[in-house]
């Protein structure tokens, strides 16, 4: 028996949630985090404020496992911030689980951050040179050091810290008498505001509002800072340096839940349009369109509608398999993939099949899926991907393989087709993807074309640390 792990995908980043002035703050934060669980499954935490004192509960694991009724009872107060995490910066350990908490010159502060700062190591080295001691390896902690050293009031201290930071952040700070939320000037990661009765709620994705019965008010604008007082008033300002809006396009392709709306665009309908435009760009004669569930589902519906080729569920997903599974013996080929996605012979046998998936990262899983589809009797297999080829690593809070590990960085499309064993392969174009989301929006396309909207200042420090053997 051996334990194997199939990692052939981009890893979701993190999700944040805040609720202000509600008697059920911790319970609602728990439900909100449930709605954001897809954004991070390694750890989760909630911090509440009560009588100027922070109450924190953070653990490794899933939201439903961590927050038992007993745990939630330990979180008093009318204001809470929460976080689900997949480690993109700093190792996966309980000390890096968020919200981070500190006691400093500004009193007790907690912070929940989605994104990745591209100058965090540089800032950290500077602070360490001044004698600062860090508790975590997370990039978020540098902001707390910045705030604690500031002579300004809380809001100005946060704005100064964010103005000195570069990179991606949708972030919530909990102070003794207020919550401060902000979205980076490029708007790389999503953030939106809702209202639950008289209470404001803030979330990485609008789907969390659906779950708690809150009304969606609007997206937080890139560069906007929101201050929520403890009595539930909201003040908005736009103090962060302006930049070219460059929201993450991959949120629409892959990360966000289809039932979310980001920057005014429904993720589900954007995915359907990706499939429809993919059909315009690269349809082929075939008998059926089959999604790789659940990731390729909406795009396959769009592809089928636009091409007129019938949609069929030729791959059936098991919902009872985790990311790691016990593999009984090597001799059952592709056992792991089959356990998750079983090809249906009754649907596939003798058919020319167009398979739709949302992305192709290393290609190892796709290769096995294609092999299984052929073994189930498909006559031809044409693979269509509803995003452009991923050629470059993300620097803004998404855990991606290195450029060298990305298939599309190393091979031509014909070579990839041969490697995964399909009769033909085509990707959605970058222009097609932008058109599917919103052609007038400003988007980051760096993982497709290397056009990074923010420079990576930590590159030099990383090389230096490597040189020093750290
Ligand atoms: S590089 Fe790709 S995954 Fe990263 S923010 Fe840009 S579009 Fe999103």
Largest sheet: 7 strands, antiparallel
Number of contiguous helices = 18
CATH fold-level name of the largest domain: Glutamine Phosphoribosylpyrophosphate, subunit 1, domain 1
CATH-defined superfamily of the largest domain? Aminohydrolase, N-terminal nucleophile (Ntn) domain
User: Distance N terminus to C terminus?
Assistant: 37 Å
Count of strand segments: 25
CATH architecture of the largest domain: 4-Layer Sandwich
Major sheet: order of its strands? 4-3-5-2-11-10-12
What is the gyration radius calculated from CA atoms? 23 Å
Taking all residues together, what is the mean pLDDT?
A: 90
What spatial form do the alpha-carbon principal axes imply? globular
What would you say this structure looks like, in words?
The protein has 470 residues and is of the alpha+beta class. It has 18 helices and 25 strands. A hairpin with a 2-residue loop joins strand 8 and strand 9 (178-183). Helix 5 (141-149) packs across helix 6, helix 9 (267-282) crosses helix 10 and helix 9 runs antiparallel to helix 16. Iron/sulfur cluster binds at residues 188, 248-250, 394, 396, 398, 444-447.
Which SSEs are present, and which pair or pack?
Layout: E1 2-5, E2 14-20, H1 25-35, E3 43-50, E4 53-60, H2 63-66, H3 69-73, E5 79-85, E6 100-104, E7 107-114, H4 120-129, H5 141-149, H6 154-164, E8 170-175, E9 178-183, E10 192-196, E11 199-203, H7 207-212, E12 215-219, E13 225-229, E14 234-237, E15 247-248, H8 250-255, E16 261-262, E17 265-266, H9 267-282, E18 288-291, H10 297-307, E19 315-317, E20 324-327, H11 335-340, E21 341-343, H12 345-348, E22 352-357, H13 364-375, E23 380-385, H14 407-410, H15 413-420, E24 424-427, H16 430-437, E25 443-444, H17 446-449, H18 459-467
């Amino acid at each position: 028996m051996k334990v194997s792990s199939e990692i052939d995908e981009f890893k979701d980043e993190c999700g944040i949630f805040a609720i202000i002035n509600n008697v059920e703050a911790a319970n609602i934060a728990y439900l909100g985090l449930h709605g954001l669980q897809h954004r991070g499954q390694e750890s989760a935490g909630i911090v509440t404020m009560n009588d100027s004192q922070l109450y924190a509960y953070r653990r490794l694991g899933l939201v439903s496992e961590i927050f038992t009724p007993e745990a939630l009872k330990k979180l008093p107060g009318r204001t809470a911030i929460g976080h689900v995490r997949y480690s993109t910066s700093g190792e996966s350990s309980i000390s890096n689980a968020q919200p981070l908490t500190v006691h400093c010159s500004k009193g007790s502060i907690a912070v929940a951050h989605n994104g990745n700062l591209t100058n965090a190591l540089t800032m950290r080295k500077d602070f360490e040179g001044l004698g600062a001691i860090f508790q975590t390896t997370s990039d978020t902690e540098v902001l707390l050091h910045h705030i604690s050293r500031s002579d300004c009031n809380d809001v100005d201290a946060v704005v100064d810290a964010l103005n000195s930071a570069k990179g991606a952040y949708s972030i919530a700070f909990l102070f003794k008498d207020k919550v401060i939320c902000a979205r980076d000037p490029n708007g790389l990661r999503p953030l939106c505001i809702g209202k639950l009765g008289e209470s404001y709620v803030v979330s990485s994705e609008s789907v969390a509002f659906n779950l708690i019965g809150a009304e969606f008010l609007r997206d937080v604008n890139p560069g906007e800072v929101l201050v929520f007082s403890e009595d539930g008033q909201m003040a908005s300002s736009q103090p962060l340096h302006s930049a070219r809006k460059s929201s993450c396009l991959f949120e629409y392709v892959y990360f966000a839940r289809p039932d979310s709306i980001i920057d005014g665009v429904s993720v589900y309908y954007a995915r359907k349009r990706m499939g429809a435009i993919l059909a315009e760009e690269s349809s082929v004669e075939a008998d059926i369109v089959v999604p790789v569930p659940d990731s390729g589902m909406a795009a396959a519906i769009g592809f089928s509608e636009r091409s007129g080729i019938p949609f069929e569920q030729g791959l059936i997903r098991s919902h009872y398999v985790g990311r790691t599974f016990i593999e009984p013996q090597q001799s059952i080929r592709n056992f792991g993939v089959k356990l998750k996605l079983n090809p249906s012979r009754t649907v596939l046998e003798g058919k020319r099949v167009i398979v739709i998936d949302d992305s192709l990262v290393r290609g190892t899983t796709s290769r096995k899926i294609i092999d299984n589809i052929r073994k189930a009797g498909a006559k031809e297999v044409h693979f269509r991907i509803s995003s452009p080829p991923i050629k470059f690593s993300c620097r803004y809070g998404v855990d991606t393989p290195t450029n060298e590990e990305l298939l599309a960085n190393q091979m031509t499309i014909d070579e990839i087709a041969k490697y995964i064993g399909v009769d033909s392969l085509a990707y959605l174009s970058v222009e097609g993807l932008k058109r599917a989301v919103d052609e007038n929006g400003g988007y980051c396309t760096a993982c497709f074309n290397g056009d990074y909207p923010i420079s990576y200042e930590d590159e030099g420090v990383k090389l230096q640390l490597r040189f020093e053997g750290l």
